[in-house]
Structures are given as C-alpha cells and as structure tokens.
Design a protein that fits this description.
Blueprint (H helix, E strand, L loop, with lengths): L1 H19 L2 H4 L13 E12 L2 E9 L9 E7 L4 E2 L3 E4 L10 E9 L2 E11 L5 E10 L5 E8 L6 E13 L2 E10 L4 E8 L6 E5 L10 E10 L2 E9 L15 E7 L6 E3 L3 E2 L7 E7 L5 E7 L15 E2 L1 E2 L3 E6 L2 E6 L7 E18 L6 E9 L5 E8 L5 E6 L4 E5 L10 E5 L4 E9 L2 E6 L4 E6 L8 E20 L3 E2 L1
Parallel strand pairs: 1-21, 4-35
Antiparallel strand pairs: 1-2, 2-3, 3-5, 6-7, 7-8, 8-9, 10-11, 11-12, 12-13, 14-15, 15-16, 16-17, 16-18, 19-20, 20-22, 20-23, 23-24, 25-34, 26-31, 26-34, 27-28, 27-34, 28-29, 29-30, 31-32, 32-33
Pathway: Glycan biosynthesis; sucrose metabolism
Function: Enables the bacterium to metabolize sucrose as a sole carbon source.
GO molecular function, one term: beta-fructofuranosidase activity
Length: about 500
C-alpha cells in the first residue's frame, strides 16, 4: 500500500506540474518539443509501440532524485507527436523480483493487448546483483498488471549483467534479444524464444565477428529493415579514437544476415548511430505507416554532476523520434514528418547567395529549425556559429582540406565542455538542425551523420551566423521558429 501511495503522489505531482506551469516559462532550459521529466531523472526509452491508434512511449524515470536509483517506468501517449498525455509512473520497483529497479525493456502489441517485458534489478545487503526478465500486461482499463519473472535463471557462463529484453515476433514465434556479459567481462547479445510469452527457452549467443568488443552490450534491438537484419546495441568499454567512440559509452549497429537456426550473423562493420556527446540506449519500433522509428536517450551516464539542471531538480530528455532509412548498407536518420507541424513562422528563406558571412537578427528564442545547403566554392573552411551571445557560442565547423568537421561546445559558459569530430567527403554541405533551448540535434548530408548534444546557453544567446574564409554559395537556407508540444 505504501508503494501504491507513492505512485499516486508522484502522478498527482506530475499532473499539477503540467497543469500549472508551461514548459517555456518554468526555466530557461526547459524544452519545447523534446520529452523530458517534470522532475527527477529520465534515461532509457522503453516499451516503444504503436497500439490502438496511439504511440506509447515509456521511459526510465526516477521521480524522487536526480540519481540512477529507484527506476520506474513512465508512460506518455500521443497520436501526432505534438499532443501528449501527462507523464505517469506505471511500473514501480515494488516486488521482490524488481525491488531495486524496473530496468529497461520493450513492448509488443498482440491483437487488443500490449505486452511488456523488462528487467527486474535486485541487490542483496552486500550489493550483489540479481536480474530477472519480467512480464507485465496492459489491461482493458489501461493499467499495467505485473505477471512476474519469465526468465529467473542466468545461463551458464554469464554474469548478472543480463538485461534489457527487446521482444519481436517472427514466423509465428516470439523472441527477445538481451544484453549480457560473459564471466570473462566481455559483452554479448543473447536470444530467447517462446511460443506463448509465458515459457521462454534460451536459444544461445548471437554469433558476431566481435569477439572482444567492450565489457557489456546494453539495450540491443534486433529487427529487419528493407530485407537486411540489423542489430543495434550499446557497447561499454570501447577505447576512444579521434573520430570514433568519443563518448564514455557508444550506441551503434551491425547490418547483414542473421540465421535464426545457427545464430550466425554475417555482417559488416559496427557503425555508430550518433556522434554527439548525448546519445545512448536507443530503441526502435514500427508504426501503422510501416515506418521504422528510433528514439534514444539524450544523455550519458556518469556525467550527471556536469549538467546544470540537476540543481533545478530534473535531468535529461529523449531525442526526437527519427525514421530509419537504409541506403547502401548505411542507416540514415531523418526527423519524422510530423515535426513540420511545430513550425510557427518562416523567418528566413534565402537562395543562391554568394558571400563569406551571413547572419540573422530574426531569432528571439532558441527554439528553431534550420535547413541549410552550402556549396563551398573556393572556401577551405565553413563555420556555422549558433547560440551566440556576448560571451559564448557553439560552432559546427567543416574543414574541406582535411575532409573532417567538428561540433565544438567548449565556448559555452554552462554544461559539459566537448568537441565531437566527424568525417565527410563532399563539396556540398547539407545541414538540418533543430535547436530546442537546451538540446541540439544535427542531421548532416540527409541524415547520414547525426550529432546530438545538450547545451545550456545563457538568456539572449540566440545569435546564428555562417562564416567562411572565402566566398561560398548559400544555395538554400530556411529558418523557422518552432512551437511547443502540448500536454493534455
């Protein structure tokens, strides 16, 4: 009863927050069109599904403190990615098999039911970990009913770092893939199967070419896109390189052909999904339009003390939903078409301007969308400078002689100092950038490269400029100010 009362109190406080305070007025870093918690800490997206005409988006939530403890599942629903239900806590760590956290998992819609699978985290008095893969069902009243563990034993040879079930159906059979760790402290992905969702059998380890690739693989997703099998996972423990693995932990994918009989996966090279400093633990699902949609956590564990909103009582957000499109064995990511509905006014519409500097005075807030296409002409370097104020700015730089670029946040006063580098090979640059007060998502070259970063500009730091050493051709530039998501 005490746990039930705590959930009711959390949900009432959440409802009061959204009814009495608009996101735009609560503080200068509150977001307009990214999902974030009213209070506490948000992390992994969970249970993504299209069900009965609505998108269900669950996420990890500690509603009590900005700490990675007491993990609940929150739920928001939307029909159009603009109007949302008020976030509610729907799973709480209140049973023996999940008492130390309802960890990440997924959902599957089966006829008129939504079935959820998640990891129950349990620790003893000495801190030793146990992991249970658990099931919950959404009943006709819209309430989640826990059904307890469906996998309660570790397979031999693996540690209790055994979590994040991603469920799917293939040829009339159900499967989930799990993140795991060998006793030798090496990351792996495991496969389970079931005929009825109740009894699950261990199929074995997914056999990839990556024998020693980090010490843990978190949040795996296994799915098919345009006839190719794709395994997304988040390996921990990769050594940082100049253009790869620049974060504490990474998220990426391998693509090829997976054999469900032998568990052999013939695949290409691991490729990161997002080169920004704030992207982790993504999950994918399909909707009624047959789109493959991905949402990630726009944050990074073990850096929380450097995020200034922690002192304000809230941390992190989810990325914008992105549609995944396969081209030449590379996943391209594009913002959903629905986000065009956030456009309020076209502030700039420029074509074929030859110059070495461009700027605008049309921006009054950092809630905007920029579409930009530039031909370098003779320029060796181009800089897109944004969030510019009296004493700060962020910059996106393209160096054509080196064939590389970077996003530099070191000149911002607040937040985590960072430079994230990327490669490119084209004289024509395409930038599709979304700025949302304290979040930036940048889609380059039609979404081939994506860079996501949390930023915390001062009031009035809304400057936007293009700088080049020689003349460039701004072939196309469109700039819109954007509105807010609505909670109902």
């Amino acid at each position: 009863m005490e746990d039930l009362k705590k959930i009711i109190d959390v949900n009432l406080n959440s409802e009061m927050y959204y009814k009495n305070m608009s996101n735009s007025s609560s503080d200068k870093w509150r977001l307009n069109y990214h999902l974030e918690p009213p209070f506490g800490l948000l992390n992994d997206p969970n249970g993504l599904a299209y069900f009965k005409g609505e998108y269900y988006i669950f996420y990890q939530w500690n509603p009590y403190k900005c700490e990675h403890k007491d993990k609940h599942w929150a739920l928001v629903k939307t029909k159009d990615f603009m109007h949302y239900s008020i976030p509610k806590a729907v799973l709480a760590p209140d049973e023996w098999y999940d008492k130390d956290g309802c960890y990440s998992g997924s959902a599957i819609a089966i006829e008129d039911k939504l079935e959820l699978f998640y990891t129950g985290n349990v620790r003893d008095d000495k801190g030793n970990r146990e992991a249970y893969q658990c099931r919950a069902s959404l009943n006709q009243d819209g309430e989640l009913v826990k059904k307890g563990p469906v996998v309660d034993k570790l397979p031999k040879g693996y540690t209790a770092h055994f979590r994040d079930p991603y469920i799917f159906e293939k040829d009339g059979k159900y499967y989930f893939v799990l993140g795991a760790q060998l006793e030798e402290k090496i990351g792996r992905a495991l496969l389970y199967s079931s005929e009825d969702l109740n009894k699950w059998s261990f199929e074995g380890e997914i056999k990839t070419d990556y024998e020693n690739f980090g010490y843990m693989w978190e949040c795996p997703s296994l799915f098919n896109l345009d006839g190719k099998d794709i395994l997304i996972f988040s390996p921990q423990g990769l050594e940082s390189e100049e253009f790869r693995y620049q974060n504490i932990y990474q998220s990426g994918y391998i693509i090829g052909k997976f054999d469900f009989e032998t568990l052999n996966f013939k695949h290409g090279e691991f490729r990161e999904l997002d080169l920004g400093k704030d992207f982790y633990a993504p999950q994918v699902f399909k909707d009624d339009k047959n789109r493959t949609i991905m949402i990630g956590w726009m944050g990074m564990p073990e850096e929380e003390d450097k995020y200034p909103t922690k002192e304000l009582g809230w941390l992190h957000c989810l990325t914008m939903p992105r549609e995944l499109i396969l081209k030449d064995d590379i996943i391209y990511q594009v913002p959903l078409k629905e986000f065009e509905n956030y456009r309020i006014k076209l502030l700039e519409d420029t074509k074929n301007i030859i110059c070495n500097e461009w700027n605008t005075d049309a921006l009054e807030t950092n809630s905007y969308e920029l579409l930009l296409e530039i031909d370098r002409l003779e320029a060796k370097k181009i800089e897109l400078r944004f969030l510019e104020g009296k004493d700060e700015y962020s910059s996106l730089v393209f160096n054509f002689e080196e064939g590389s670029g970077f996003l530099d946040n070191n000149k911002l006063i607040n937040g985590v100092n960072s430079v994230r580098r990327f490669k490119f090979n084209n004289d024509k640059i395409k930038v599709h950038m979304f700025v949302d007060k304290s979040a930036v998502e940048i889609f380059l070259q039609d979404g081939e490269t994506v860079i996501s970063s949390r930023v915390y500009p001062e009031e009035g730091s809304t400057g936007l400029r293009i700088l080049a050493e020689n003349n460039v051709n701004i072939k196309d530039l469109k700039l819109w100010n954007l509105g807010e998501m609505l909670y109902e």
